[in-house]
């Protein structure tokens, strides 16, 4: 399948989808990586930021997993007129409670409430946008995802230089704006349109892929928080700007590679993100743990790793009609869970190791080797990529579509026969996609 952007037209729904997903990305950056949110009347508390991040991610993983196990109920919630705003409202309220973490009489109570609400709300928002992007062709998914990730990190850089009050208001408003834009970008679909059961071969391939990104996500999460300064929010505002610049460059390289590729090859697309993370890790012994240069490269590479996985999950749903709630529920939960485990390891064990120069060099070398080896195993030998490069047989797909037309209009005959075990109503409901 070729990656071509020339024929893509941006309409109102496309614009709402890109801006809405960008708002969701920017909110996550500001809410979990800006310690200024806690700098109101009290002094900044790095432990609050770390606890909010870990608690929210754990709640996010639980929300995504439970949703994936109950896809029909989750689908009904996200597509009801009121239920579609449950996630945005929960995330907004959770963000608003951050003010009381630093000023309230019971900071731990408000911290726990904020963690649960932001994790629950962001989980539902991610599933909403997963459904939205699963409707798109591969070309449009790649282009719109890249633009949304770029806008998200650009907003993060711009907001980081504003006052704590403005950052706080931004964190409260963004989930609501993202939810409103989702409501204006959605298309009317039924859950059965994306409810194809995962067959044994596909399920094994997907499980192997999840196992691979779990291991890679753990190493990437540990790498992202390897520096104590990034764990405690002590880097200057230039850190956010550096992340935006490096991420923009990586996304630009990503798009150039995608444009020049004749097929959807994962390994070349991941290479820029891998190189950025390797550069950051290997520069750590040179610049030291307090420098923003290694942190910017590592964080940008991790962001683009998330971008590539998002595109893969979207294409799986679109290509094979898998339930996006299950694919994104399981897929995003393992990435988030592995990342937070890596962060916990970094929080607990790395600060002492990084105090010694020789141990820092050894640790950087080990992480670099692990990143290279795991990424090679995942993106070179994973069966899920064979599914993506070999879509459903077009002749069989054509016959299935003809049968749908015969059944829909009550015509005689048909290509696939009437003994396939699939009723006319079910075939008529199947979405015909490009």
Instruction: Please compute the radius of gyration using only Cα atoms.
Output: 22 Å
Order of helix and strand elements from N to C terminus: HHHHHHHHHHHHHHHHHH
Helix content: over 70%
Beta-strand fraction estimate: under 5%
Distance between the termini: 12 Å
Describe the structure.
The protein has 434 residues and is mostly helical. The protein has 18 helices and no strands. α4 runs antiparallel to α6, α4 (86-96) runs antiparallel to α8 and α9 (200-224) runs parallel beside α14 (324-353).
Short description:
The protein is an all-alpha fold and 434 residues long. The chain has 18 helices and no strands.
Describe the structure using short key phrases.
434 residues; mainly alpha; disordered C terminus
How would you summarize the topology of this molecule?
Blueprint: H1 12-33, H2 46-69, H3 71-78, H4 86-96, H5 98-103, H6 107-134, H7 138-160, H8 164-185, H9 200-224, H10 228-231, H11 237-260, H12 266-287, H13 292-320, H14 324-353, H15 357-381, H16 383-389, H17 394-409, H18 424-429
Helix pairs in contact: 1-6, 1-7, 1-8, 2-6, 2-14, 4-6, 4-8, 6-8, 6-13, 6-14, 7-11, 7-13, 9-13, 9-14, 9-15, 11-12, 11-13, 12-13, 12-15, 13-14
